[in-house]
Write a structure and sequence with these properties.
alpha/beta; Rossmann fold; seven-stranded mixed beta sheet; two-stranded antiparallel sheet; 29% strand; binds adenosine-5'-diphosphate
Length: 192
């Protein structure tokens, strides 16, 4: 039998790009506008240690909104209220592949899902679930930062230390934005 869907449809919006490209600012902006319009919103981000924790989603420009930090993305399904209309998730690249299922499930329930995350890691390679997520999403916004060397548009995140793990948490002391001419990926064989 043909399924006829009544009521509102959900969708997925992805905001991607390198560090300092304004992904968190954009996530906060979209979420705040929805809140002003009295939409019910819930915000999550990846938390390195705690299972769930009240936390702020903070941009490098110090804009913030209260949210919940968690490590198992599947827990979002239990934490989202039926009445919630917008689910925002920051640091999407740190979650495992279940992020894609969770985002689709929430969108299929009629919610607007906004996910911000790095599309490339410090080696310039696709980061975690982001490529799959981009394929599943209705809207993709690719943001760029400004190259710290020349001022051109920057698509890459340059790691300034020799650490080899894919995940090394840090801000401007550890990373900077670079264009493709000035991005220096780790030498072959050295990457983690
Ligand atoms: P992201 O979530 O993409 O890491 P944020 O939204 O946290 O980005 O921060 C964006 C802010 O970072 C900018 O508004 C600016 O204040 C700051 N910033 C620092 N370095 C740069 C850079 N190289 N290019 C652009 N913005 C930068």
């Amino acid at each position: 039998m043909m399924q006829i869907v009544h009521g509102r449809t959900g969708w997925i919006e992805v905001i991607c790009g390198p560090m300092f490209s304004g992904k968190s600012e954009e996530l906060i902006k979209r979420t705040r506008r929805a809140q002003i319009a009295r939409r019910r919103v819930q915000i999550f981000k990846h938390g390195i240690d705690a299972r769930y924790d009240a936390t702020d989603i903070v941009s490098h420009s110090q804009q913030k909104m209260p949210g919940i930090a968690l490590t198992r993305v599947e827990d979002i399904i239990d934490l989202v209220d039926d009445r919630t209309e917008l689910v925002a998730i920051d640091e999407g690249q740190f979650f495992d592949g279940h992020l894609v299922e969770v985002a689709n499930k929430l969108a299929n329930l009629g919610k607007r899902v906004i996910i911000a995350g790095l599309d490339l890691d410090y080696r310039g390679l696709p980061f975690g679930p982001m490529p799959q997520l981009i394929c599943s999403s209705e809207y993709v916004t690719k943001q760029l930062a400004i190259c710290m060397t020349c001022g051109d548009p920057a698509n890459f995140t340059q790691r300034l230390t020799g650490a080899k793990d894919q995940i090394v948490v840090g801000a401007s002391e550890t990373y900077e934005a670079r264009c493709r001419r000035h991005f220096e990926p780790p030498a072959a064989g050295e990457e983690g």
